[in-house]
Specification:
There is one protein chain. The protein is 28% helix and 26% strand. It is an alpha+beta fold. A three-stranded mixed sheet has the order 1-5-4, with helices on one face. Strand 4 (55-57) and strand 5 (60-63) form a beta hairpin.
Length: 78
């Protein structure tokens, strides 16, 4: 398990490559899952993270904090 990641976070991260394959997207393998309700854009700008969006960048995946704990219940375990 990665430092600072819960078991459920790791389970979500493990599902990402197969989801990319199912959606026909370039395979993405994030190393860290971050739960945030907004993302800082620089110069004081922030955008909200909708519950039905995922933001990917670098080796990170960002999901809405208010979805934490319910994502696996909705999507099942790996």
């Amino acid at each position: 398990m990665s430092e600072g990641q819960s078991g459920s976070d790791e389970a979500i991260l493990q599902q990402v490559p197969s989801m990319c394959d199912l959606l026909g997207l370039k395979r993405f393998t994030p190393k860290k899952l971050i739960w945030e309700d907004s993302i800082y854009l620089g110069r004081g700008g922030r955008i909200s993270v909708p519950v039905d969006y995922v933001f990917l960048g670098g080796r990170r995946m960002i999901l809405a904090r208010r979805m934490q704990g319910s994502w696996l219940q909705r999507n099942g375990s790996p």
